[in-house]
Input
Amino acid sequence: MRIDWWTLALQTFNVLVLVLILGRFLFRPVAAIIEERRAAAVRLLADAEAAKHEANAARDAANGEAARLADTRDEALRQAAAAAERERAAALAAARTEVDQLRAVAEAEIQRERQAAAAAASDRAARLAVEIAEKLLNRLPDSARIDGFVGGLADGLASLPAASRDGLGGGEDARLKAARPLSEAESKSCRDAFARALGRPLNFVIAVDPDLVAGLELETPHAVVRNSFRADLSRIVEELTRHG
Output
């Protein structure tokens, strides 16, 4: 085989020239573009990583804020529930107090009504007893309203303590109350009975009190002795009212 050295050299020269031209006008710009693209890609990756970190940080912050808000909400709910419970307890206590006050007022009113009813019943009973007594006494002789009570009043004087008996008639006249005016005989009967009971005379003035219905009552500054229908009726009504 025969080699043409001139052709080979020419072709080699052409190749070198082509490589120089390509290296100057093609390879360098392309390499620069590739490097620029690589740098841009690196920057994009870095930006993406930074954005990823920021997103993660934002997500963590959001999660922390959400947890804080949840804790705050739970605490607010607990406080609201506690406040509601306190208000409910206060309302119940106020309601109980009001109910107790109303009950006390109602009980007091009931008690007053009962007392008023008892007093009214007592008054009616007293009036009825007086009416009955008067009707019964109207059937008796008029002297029975006095004579039948002289001895009982004298016994009452005799049963007084010694100090009370000794103080009777000490310069002050006693007052003898009767259901009607006394006759001379009735007045003398009273003086004699009182003298026997006390062992000495007793001065007294006579006062008429129709409310006695029948009987006598002796009033002195030191003692009061009663023997009358009014006193008996008052004791009966008091007993009836107390037992009722």
